[in-house]
Amino acid sequence: IDNGILEDTEQFFGDLNTSDPDVDLRPQRTTIRIADDDNVSVGFADEFYVFSESMGKGSLCVYKIGATVISVTLSISGTLQNEVPFQETLTMLPASVRECVDFPILDDDVALEPPDMLAFTLQAESANVQVLQGSVFAAIVDDDELSVSLQKTEDRIPESAGSVAVCVLFENQFASGFNITVNIADITTTAGQDYSGVPNSLSATPGQNQTCFSLSITDDEIFEEEECFILSIEVPSDGIIMSTNSSNSCCIIDNDSLTVGFQQ
Predict the structure, then answer these.
(1) What global pTM score does this model have?
(2) Distance CA 102, CA 90 (A)
(3) What digits encode the pLDDT tens for the residues 115-131?
(4) In angstroms, rounded to a whole number, what is the distance separating the alpha carbons of residues 90 and 73?
């Protein structure tokens, strides 16, 4: 009977009997084996997987199409992050139509990483199993955020200081470079007259824990009141957050004196 069910080879015995004493039966018994020629189909349940680093693990699921009375053994292999080999055996019981295996995901503290692309292959270890979708890719997406802050500068800068260092601090590691926009809003200062050397942007390079520029202060000979400005920064929004401070209010303190007296 061709029942359409994947099963082990079945066997039974056939015996010969006779009532004639002159007939010698050799052999009297034979073994009859029925080899199953039915198939089942298996494959990865999805064409593409996406996991985030913080999940800690990913799951690859396999489907089975077709009835069985025996378990089906499969193997999944691939390469994980940092070129770590992966090999897992998956057993699908007769009643099972979908099974999953887990693999570890490396969750580091490095921000702005490009996705890790992993490839996996499905193979059948059991006979009469057809693999329909035997390869799949999985993307491991970085969900770490880079914390950025503007280092607090002196609120009151002596005109005689000549320059002041302005630094942007990075509180954790990052894998991709980006630009930081630098803005100065004059309150009572005049750009190019009271200060200079403000870049339009700063470059952040992987491996840095800070990036700085030098703000030049003009030391003139004019007796004047303190002059103030607001220094601020802007960063890209994807994967970067301002942790504490994004702006500083600063005043340039005049060091000149005015001499007055009666006219002779």
Answers:
(1) 0.73
(2) 11
(3) 999 999 999 998 888 89
(4) 6
Beta bridge mates, 174: 111
Separation of alpha carbons 104 and 107, rounded Å: 9
Residues in Cβ contact with 264 at an 8 Å cutoff, skipping those fewer than 6 apart: none
Q: What is the amino acid identity at position 254?
A: D
The string of DSSP codes covering 85-145 is: EEEEEEEE-TT-SEEEEEEE----S-BSPPPEEEEEEEEE-STTEEEEE-EEEEEEE----
The length of the chain is 264
* Both structure tokens of 46: 């999805």
Q: How far is CA 259 from CA 6, 11, 160, in A?
A: 107, 120, 19
SS3 state at 217: strand
pLDDT, one tens digit per residue, over 34-80 is 455 557 889 999 999 999 999 999 999 999 988 887 889 999 999 99
Strand partners, 10: 34
